[in-house]
Write a structure and sequence with these properties.
With 351 residues, this protein is α+β, with helices and mostly antiparallel strands. The chain has two domains: 3-114, NADH Oxidase (3-Layer(aba) Sandwich), CATH 3.40.109.10; 128-329, NADH Oxidase, CATH 3.40.109. The protein has eleven helices and eight strands. It has helices at residues 3-14, 52-71, 128-139, 152-171, 173-181, 209-214, 218-225, 229-243, 258-277, 287-292, 300-317, and strands at residues 25-30, 33-38, 74-80, 89-97, 145-147, 247-253, 281-285, 321-329. The radius of gyration is 20 Å and the shape is globular. The N and C termini lie close together (10 Å). The protein binds flavin mononucleotide.
Length: 351
């Protein structure tokens, strides 16, 4: 691989999604071998205990690189978690020329278009053919699958679990602090930022913006929680957008082993790219699945709520671990302004 191709592959990698736009990736080249590591300074916060969110983001980054490289005629020999003693070292990728030459890779065209859309309402329907295409993308990564709540009872159960998890993010002082620390209020309500969440990306209605901004203060949140603010926020951030969107599915991973979470990130990215090619808008909801795994430790009084989330998810998807919900639908207009990324050089040594 020449320098130009290497930089191109990394650029595809960092276009991947990451929780709170944390971009927890680090790269190092050794000849044509590329090491992907989790950036210790951008990972390991309370929701990222055991690196669940970072492994998902690393999987998505890895998949973008594999897809892009394949479109340039390279295949990857992948070794995941190559050194058990080094928990941040996620993968070593050995690139070599594909003996079959350049392969058509339709997903590559969606890498730069894919984005998170938090607006609503969205229209539908999402046809069975589209669902079949998304299911097939998830299954291309062994062990991974999508679960679609179909009956009104299943949909209601899924909605409840997401709403409860989103409510907890405002009820728990620990989760509240984590959530608001990733929002870059100083950039204002119109600009993008190169790391973290720009307020503009959150789709908060203009009249509610001052209230939302005031909620970043723990004392204010605690006071308003006495009046039920967390429930209202859970309803606004999850229940309402999902009710007003035609599609909801859940990425289910076979076990909580880190290699399966990483593979889950790869499947998530394939599904998201396919959805983009199909003109669908996507918003992930990760709180329910991540909190339900049981690795996150918050205030003892709320710990029971976390275990109930885990049990509700297990009941919902029967086998495996439901990790990330995806809200899907067709938006009326293209999204203006996209989340930024840091400069490529900040992810480690350039090729
Ligand atoms: C593991 C993971 C979890 C995420 N969880 C949420 C979430 O709960 N709610 C949400 O609105 N976006 C969520 N996102 C989307 C990220 O915030 C988004 O990818 C990031 O801000 C970059 O923006 P982009 O996807 O438009 O490139 C998640 C993304 C990943 C990879």
């Amino acid at each position: 691989m020449n320098r130009h191709t290497k930089a191109d592959v990394l650029r595809a990698g960092i276009a991947a999604p990451s929780a709170d736009n944390s971009q927890p990736w680090q790269f190092a080249w050794c000849g044509d071998d590329l090491d992907l590591r989790i950036d210790a300074s951008r990972s390991g916060r309370v929701s990222d205990t055991r690196y669940v969110l970072s492994d998902l983001a690393a999987g998505a980054c890895l998949e973008n690189m594999i897809i892009h490289a394949r479109s340039l005629g390279y295949v990857a020999d992948l070794q995941t978690f190559p050194h058990p003693g080094d928990e941040l070292w996620v993968a070593r990728i050995r690139w070599h020329r594909d003996p079959e030459g350049d392969q058509p890779e339709p997903l590559a065209g969606a890498i730069d278009q894919r984005h998170t859309d938090r607006r609503f309402p969205w229209s539908g329907p999402i046809t069975t053919e589209t669902q079949t295409r998304l299911n097939a993308r998830a299954r291309q990564i062994p062990g991974q699958r999508l679960y679609w709540p179909r009956t009104p009872r299943e949909r209601k159960a899924a909605l409840n679990v997401i709403r409860q998890a989103e409510t907890l993010r405002f009820r728990s002082p620990t989760l509240h602090a984590e959530l608001f620390s990733s929002i870059r209020f100083p950039v204002g309500w119109h600009a993008a930022c190169e790391e973290g969440l720009a307020p503009a990306a959150l789709a908060v209605e203009p009249p509610l913006r001052p209230v939302f901004q005031a909620l970043r203060r723990p004392a204010m949140m605690t006071m308003l929680n006495r009046l039920g603010a967390a429930s209202v926020l859970g309803w606004r951030s999850a229940y309402l957008p999902i009710r007003l969107s035609p599609g909801l599915c859940l990425l289910v991973i076979p076990s909580t082993a880190r290699s399966d979470v990483l593979a889950g990130g790869r499947a998530l990215q394939r599904v998201w790219l396919e959805a983009t090619l199909n003109g669908l808008s996507v918003q992930p909801y990760a709180a329910a699945g991540v909190l339900g795994l049981g690795f996150v430790s918050i205030e003892p009084v709320l710990q029971g709520a976390l275990s109930r989330l885990g049990s509700a998810l297990i009941d919902l998807c029967e086998s495996g671990y439901g990790l990330v919900f995806l809200r899907l639908g067709y938006a009326r207009s293209a999204l203006r302004g996209r989340s930024g990324r840091r400069a490529l050089a900040s992810f480690g040594a350039l090729p």
